[in-house]
Prior knowledge:
The chain is α/β, with parallel strands linked by helices. It has a single domain, classed as Rossmann fold (3-Layer(aba) Sandwich), CATH 3.40.50. The protein has helices at residues 3-12, 29-33, 49-57, 70-82, 131-138, 154-166, 193-200, 224-229; strands at residues 18-20, 39-43, 62-67, 88-92, 107-113, 141-151, 170-175, 206-211. It has an 8-stranded mixed sheet with strand order 1-4-3-2-5-6-8-7, sandwiched between helices. The chain starts with a helix and ends in a 7-residue tail after the last helix.
Amino acid sequence: MGHKKLIRFNAINSYRNVLQNPENIKGNWGNFFKNTNPLVLELACGKGEYSVNLGREHNDHNYIGVDIKGNRMYTGATTALAENLNNVAFLRINIGQILNYFEKDEVSEIWIIFPDPFLRKGKAKNRLTHPRFLHLYQQLLKKGGRINLKTDSKELYDFTLETILAQSCTIHENIADIYGEGKATGALAIQTFYEKMHLADNRTIYFISFSLPDREITIPERFMKDEEGDTEDAAG
Length: 236
């Protein structure tokens, strides 16, 4: 491990706003934040730009950046501490184990910002909008809670649109080109480190906001072979 990474890992070990595989937090986030404001998750948060920026704008919500990569998380956690953003925290876990840390109906909204699209054959199950992840989200999201995906990957965008239509999800927004359509306002105006790189490379940015159906999410048969043949850990 590089010296810089080691410094960052040591730092977040002492940060009060970073929890790493915490015990007894499920159902107790109100005690952690010392309020009962709605919980919003940023999954695969990286540097946590969305958690930090949304936390600045909305002090009536609590934001939790979730990722397994502490080296990146350090950036957002450090900023939140420096700015006394007491409504922003970070949870270092594998996203595939997220049900260990959130109770049913404990989360109000989810943001998924430029996640790994997992384009290699057989890796579709690791996409954070794959039915197996939607099934997890269904068990912690409040009824009608939105899932927001922002991505530069046409493949992930198309996959997500196909998946949510097949699962009878409700689509609230579907923007095939955020900047081309002049929709980069409000939360969509927040630019992450990677988004700035993508824009400099003239890539199209896509956005879908949807909510899950009342019926249970199912995994289509065409995905079952990948499920059985791929033992790689879930995305985080």
